[in-house]
Amino acid sequence: MQTEKPAKLRLPRVHLGYVPLLFIVTVTIMVLVMITVPLRNYMEQRAEIARLDASISELQNRKTQIETDLEKYHSKEYIKEQARRRLGVIEPGETAFRIIDPDAETKNHTETPQATETTPAWYTTIWDSLTIPDNPEPEQSTPKNDKLPLQPLAPEDSAAE
Questions:
Q1: Fewest CB within 10 A of the end CB: N or C in the chain?
Q2: pTM, to two decimals
Q3: Residue 20: how many CA atoms within 13 Å on its side-chain side?
Q4: Count of structural domains within the chain
């Protein structure tokens, strides 16, 4: 038996010079640039759309919350509750009691006068700093044992000394 050897397929060799190779590289780079710029814009727009969708859903949630609050504010029970709590309104036949903490009353009255007595107003401090000197200089007195006269001596007096 004879074994057949597979036939080798021979491809022709292509020899490209520098100019055609440079042309192919240039065209490839141009095609890549032409594809990447629109692709980048597409990706940025998709990210913007996703961000806006998230913002829309957040605003819709806020809208529903505001609508429920609005319904709550229009209910008579809520209005009565707020009038009782904030304004102290009572219904006819009810007796109102107000509990006052004695410690809170004494604290409020004792703290305020002490604060005003110890610290003067800001404008008083500024005015005093401008009008009252910090270290008044003592008056200079002339020493008595000074050999120098305060006034020039007359010619007759200088001969006497």
A1: N
A2: 0.38
A3: 4
A4: 1
